[in-house]
Amino acid sequence: MTILAGGIMIAFAAIAAGIGNALLFSKYLEGIARQPEAQGKLFGQAMIAVGLVEALPIIAIAFGILVLFGIVG
Which residues does this entry assign to the site Reversibly protonated during proton transport (predicted)? Predict the structure, then answer.
C-alpha cells in the first residue's frame, strides 16, 4: 500500500507542476501580447513565480520518495 501511496504522490506532484507552469506561462505570454514594452519586468516576475510553483511539487516528490521507500510512515 505504501508503494501505491508514494507513486500517487509523485504522479500528482508532476501533474500539478505541469499545470502550474502551463498556466503561468500562458498568462506571461498574454501579458507580453498586451504590453510588449513590459516584457523585461514580466520576465523577472515570471521567473520568481516559476520558483514558487516548482517548490511545492519538489517537496511533494521528496515526501513521495520517502514514503515509497518506507522511510516515513
Answer: 54
- CATH for 2-68, among 1.20.20.10, 3.40.50.720, 3.40.50.2300, 1.10.10.10? 1.20.20.10
| Residue 35 Cα distances to 26, 30, 41, 42, 49, angstroms | 14, 9, 11, 10, 19
pLDDT tens string, the chain, 73 residues long: the values are 778 888 888 889 899 999 999 999 999 999 999 999 999 999 999 999 999 999 988 998 888 888 888 776 5
d(CA 8, CA 28): 30
